[in-house]
Amino acid sequence: MSDFLNAVISGTGFGSLYGLVALGLVVVFKSTGILNFSAGALMAVGGLVAASVGHGFWISAAVAIAVVAAIGGTANLVVMRPLLGRGLFPGVMVTIGLASILQGVAGIKFGHQATFLDSPVGQASFGLPMHTTVSTTLLVAFVISVTATVVLSVAFRRTAVGLQLRAAASRPEVAAAFGANPTWIFTYAWAAAGALAALAGALLASLTVADLSIAAFALRAFSAMIVGGVDSLGGAMLGGVLVGVIELLAGTYLGNDFRIPSTMVLLMVFLLFRPQGLFGSPEVVRP
Amino acid sequence: MTSLTAARVPAVTRWQLVRWVGLAAAAAVAIGLPDVLTPYWTLIATNAVLAFAIAAPLNLLTGNAGQFSLGNAAFLAIGAYTGAFIALKLDFQLPLALLAAAAVGALVGLVVGLPSLRLRGAYLLMSTLAAHYLVVFAAQRFQTSQFGAAGAIFPPLQVGGVDLSSDRAMYLLILAFAAVIGLVIHNIMHSGHGRALEAVKARDVAAAACGIRVRRVKLVVWSLSGAMIAVAGVLQAYLIGAATFEYYTLDLAITSVAVIIVGGLGSLGGSLLGACFVTLVPVGINRLSEQYGGQVGGQDQGLLAHPLELQTIVYGVIIIVFVIFKPEGLIGPARSAGRMVQRAVGGARHA
Amino acid sequence: MPDAPLLEVDGIDVAYAGGAHALAGVSLSVAAGERVGIIGANGAGKTTVARAVTCVTRAFRATVQRGAIRYDGVDCTAWPAYRGLRAGIVSIPEGRGIIPNMTVEDNLRLVLVGLPRNQRSNVTEAFAMYPVLGERRRSMAGLLSGGEQQMLAVARALLARPRLIVADELSLGLAPRIVQELLDGLSVRAAGEGTAILLIEQAAVLSLQFVDRAYILDQGRVVASGSSSELRELGDMTARYLGVADLAGTEELL
To answer: What is the CA radius of gyration of chain C?
Structure first.
């Protein structure tokens, strides 16, 4: 039983990080229709930048967020903008190219030795009834992720940029006709995606290590996005938690090798039977 | 009475003659390459030709039929492990291994293609992403149970007692295979099937209205490309000497997608140009690194001191540059050059 | 006309990405405060004119290949859409152009946030204009009836304090009574503010009752133009260009 609870607790914690990245994926996908395959690289860069700053978690994370948000925004201005209206294939390939470049640059700048980032809080873990333990860092990560989701949702609903982004996501030509400047709103979307990925990367770095392997975690974020619902921010976070829990349960009861495949099975099942996810609006996904 | 329909086919035009001569010359050069190149360069040529054989079916799937797929590495793995099982475990000869790989590849291609009947765009892409990881996972389990952690070790290739493991033999074998693939795909592209693919790519709702059986076309192209890539996977495994599941990464799949972008979507010649280009880039970077990378003493040696990362960066830059600035790929200028030659030669006569 | 026109379209050719030519050598003008119509059958190119004038051609993969569009004497052919909005060119798009999964209120706010602060009005003005919008301010716009959605589109345009309203197929899919109400309301407010209106319509009779002058568009070209009364006399010829769809309307013309 304690195995089960530990898996659920850890899964929720890590899952919230997947959700964080998924938020960024949702923001970019809903506004530009592009799947951001550089999310993993952005995470890794975030974690590495944070670890290299080394002034404790909060300052390091803040720096990482600023840096990667700038990278995201610049990426949109430089490489994504010429692609406006050209569709999914060019967009995705450019994000893949971007990921390649980021990985290469990070490899040169930070080397391949794993570095570490301090945890945001001191104590390593505390115990709960039924022989379960909770890593305090993981708990803090969860709280931060949920807070970020709430903040982002409010920003989407209340701010001018959020309004224009939502409009552009649904009817881009209308949004443009009524004053939205696509260059700027998409730049904000990409900057937000970068910031979220960096935050997730920094949290992950403080939980494990800071190196390029962090990028692999973004894969689960794709699952989270689909499971939660491609146009729902809250859904992305909940999707992330669900994916995390299932992944760790699979790891506990089937073996470590089953972790990624379990998330992929989840992804496939939802794609085939409920592509709009748990909380997304029904999309027309006819071939 | 001689009617137009009874008239003979017009005599071969000069341009057609030039093309045939050119093709024959290219074939002669291709076949003769191992005799003039060092083993190192022969291996590179082999890799380039193999990369073409792997990318061309993907180009049919993605470029012609519009099915954006990241499944290439998965199909290579399927081929490699099927081949390993047939050739190493069951001790059959290469032709049977290739046949088996084609069959399994076709079947898995069919399964992976099923979501394309319901999904499109980003959703279809993600289904191929999931398929990649699931297939590689299955391959991993298969490898562990049948071959152990070191993977399937392929002995030097022998067919019917004839040793084919030399650089030259492997090159010619793969060249022959690539030629067959090229021929098959060329015939598909220039037939009614090719037009059906284009119609499905453009607007499958409209295609259905024209009487094209969209579901069948999609499943067939997924199956066919899966079979071809799987067979390439067997040859690749023999070339490398082993099949280990760690080799079949998403990055490997992405390499093939980069090849068809650089070369030109939907173009057979593009697949070849792209394959050569993408194969030569790491070679070029390694060469530059060797020559200039270590020269500046103990100081910061710059990018060239990190050939691996530099390759990754250049690779990303190439993808971005081609997608944004040269979306038609290298085949674009190649075709223009061809047209210039055609005009110089005198062009086609009109019947 | 003594003054330079507010809007001048000068011999434009417009083609869509696939190569389809939508407009050839189209010229028209609208003076400040004037009401001008563009009449034509399905596929004549009316919506393309609307898109060109409101600077949204790029969003629809179309380009103006020849000629120019001038607004207040300034060449605006290459303007991005938001520049047109800020200069006072506002559209009531074909098919309403509302965002279905945003609320009524958010749809109205969209145009306000797209304007610089000193040009912004307030959503409450829209609710004063059309109380039903106020009642349904928190409903998803996609759930409104056709007439209510059109009201929303009209209100949204008026909130931007336009100098030129481009209304594309306002009457499509709506009962004549509702269309009349909308046009009357539009008429009153436009007159009050001196707003020019470019009304783009298939329904010839309706259009000619509302506008002072009109152009007739057929297969991407302007084939006739004149005052409303002149065009009504052309009954015969007009019917030929309007096709079966407007037969009911043309009976009155003939």
So the answer is: 18
Q: What ipTM was reported for this prediction?
A: 0.90
Q: Which one of B122, B127, B312 has the shortest CB-CB distance to A35?
A: B122
Q: How far apart are CA B161 and CA C220, in angstroms?
A: 74
Chain A residues inside the 8 Å CB shell of B126:
35, 222, 226, 267, 271
Q: Pick from C78, C94, C86, C133: which is nearest to C112 by CA?
A: C86
- C-alpha–C-alpha distance, residues C120 and C116, integer Å: 7
Written as one string, the DSSP assignment of A154-189 is HHHHHSHHHHHHHHHHH-HHHHHHTT--HHHHHHHH
Whether the CA torsion B278, B283, B289, B291 is positive or negative: it is negative
Q: pTM for this one?
A: 0.83
d(CA B275, CA B53): 9
CB neighbour list of residue A100: distance below 8 Å, 6 or more residues apart = A41, B312, B313, B315, B316, B319
Whose tokens are 């009209």? That residue is: C154
| Chain B from 216 to 235: CB within 8 A of any A CB | 218
Q: How far apart are CA C42 and CA C245, in angstroms?
A: 9
Length of chain C: 254
Q: Output the DSSP codes for C130-182.
A: -HHHHHTTTSBGGGS-HHHHHHHHHHHHHHT--SEEEEESTTTTS-HHHHHHH
Residue C113: list chain A partners with CB under 8 A. Answer: 160, 163-164, 179
Beta bridge partners of C38: C200, C215
**C19-67 per-position pLDDT tens digit:** 788 898 899 999 988 999 999 888 888 889 999 999 888 877 788 888 8
Report which of C104, C194, C184, C98 is spatially closest to residue C140, judged by C-alpha positions: C104
**Burial of B107: CB neighbours in 10 Å, binned 0-12, 13-18, 19+:** middle
User: Can you tell me which residue has the tokens 């997924």?
Assistant: B222
Do the Cβ atoms of A25 and A261 come closer than 8 Å?
Answer: no
| Residue B241 C-alpha, separation from nearest chain A C-alpha, in angstroms | 25
Q: CA–CA separation, B68 vs B121, rounded Å?
A: 7
Report CA torsion sign: B296, B301, B306, B312. negative
Q: Please say whether the beta carbons of A271 and B119 come within 8 A.
A: yes
Cα–Cα dist A244/A238, whole Å: 10
Q: Residue B120 contacts by C-beta under 8 Å, 6 or more apart in sequence? A: A285, A286, A287
Minimum-distance CB partner of C85 among A171, A173, A178: A178
Q: What is the mean pLDDT of each run of 10 residues along chain B (351 residues)?
A: 51 77 88 86 93 96 91 95 89 89 96 91 92 95 88 83 83 93 93 84 71 84 96 94 91 92 92 94 84 56 73 90 90 87 66 40
A160: nearest CA partner in chain C: C113
Separation of CA C192 from chain center: 18
